[in-house]
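Quick note —
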Amino acid sequence: MAKKPKKHQSGSGGTPATVALTAAGTPFTTHAYEHDPASPSYGEEAAEALGVSPDRVFKTLVADVDGTLTVAVVPVAGSLDLKALAAAVGGKRAAMADPAAAERTTGYVRGGISPLGQRKQLPTVLDESAQSHETICVSAGRRGLEVELAPADLASLTGAVFAAIGRA
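Predicted structure written out below.
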């Protein structure tokens, strides 16, 4: 998947994430795959189905940092360092958000939460490892659909900061 992302026009089947990308004029490519409801890891399933290295496929997690819901975008091959996430946004303590609160606030279902096109744009932190790739894949807003784009474009559209928040 070393090819350059191309602008994708979203039709009526677009998700809020792809609609936001199209409206911003950001180049991206969508990748669909058949989601297996029995899969234990949405992100690892996506990497395998798309034939992409797990260090280029990023999962979107929602955490509660001192009472503020915050988005963390980390490689699917690792995990989130909650202490580092809190520090990245000037907080003291972070814990994983209640899944129902994450779904209600973002407008997406668990396993399909995208950092883009959220109902309410939350503070976002993107693991700094994303900067070592020309493009990365993140959820396009539903299970079985990923969007590939440049990390700088993702950061720009979400107002994200880059920080070392992932653990191998």
